[in-house]
C-alpha cells in the first residue's frame, strides 16, 4: 500500500453531517490521498468541504457495490464508512457485502468518528504499508 491511499468515504443519511464535520477537521490529511465516495456523500464533501472527490452512484443505486468492486480490484485501500446502526437501510445486503469484502481483502474500515480518529492519527495513514493479503490460491485452484 502506497503512502498516498485511495480512500472511500461513505455515510448513511443520519451520519452525513458527522462525516462532513470529521472531514473538515481532517481536510489537510484527506487532501494527500485519492478520495472516492458514494453519490450524495461525494457531492456534499465537494460542496461543503471543498475536497476533490470522485463520486460514484448513490449507495442504494449501487455505489456501495461499486466501492466493493474497486476494493476487489485493488483500487481502494481504506474505507471510512459512517453507518447508522439504528436505521434499517433498503440496501442493507449491499452494505453487508461491502463490509465483508473489506474483511476478505484486509482493508482498514473506520465505521464511526472515533475509529476514524484513531486510524487517521496513526503514522501509517501517510506512510507506505506492507499490506498483507491472504492467499486465495487454494480457493481459486479448487476443483469444481
UniProtKB/TrEMBL annotation:
Domain of life: Bacteria
Keywords for this protein: Lyase
SMART domains: MGS
Entry annotated with the keyword Methyltransferase: no
Binding residues for substrate: 12, 16, 38-41, 58-59, 91
Residue ranges of domain MGS-like in the record: 1-144
Catalytic reactions of this protein: dihydroxyacetone phosphate = methylglyoxal + phosphate
Matching InterPro entries: Methylgl_synth (IPR004363), Methylglyoxal_synth_AS (IPR018148), MGS-like_dom (IPR011607), MGS-like_dom_sf (IPR036914)
Annotated GO MF terms: methylglyoxal synthase activity
List of catalytic residues: 64
Documented EC number(s): 4.2.3.3
Role summary: Catalyzes the formation of methylglyoxal from dihydroxyacetone phosphate.
Family indicated by similarity: Belongs to the methylglyoxal synthase family.
PANTHER family: METHYLGLYOXAL SYNTHASE (PTHR30492:SF0)
HAMAP family: Methylglyoxal_synth
Name of the protein: Methylglyoxal synthase
Organism: Agaribacillus aureus
Gene (name only): mgsA
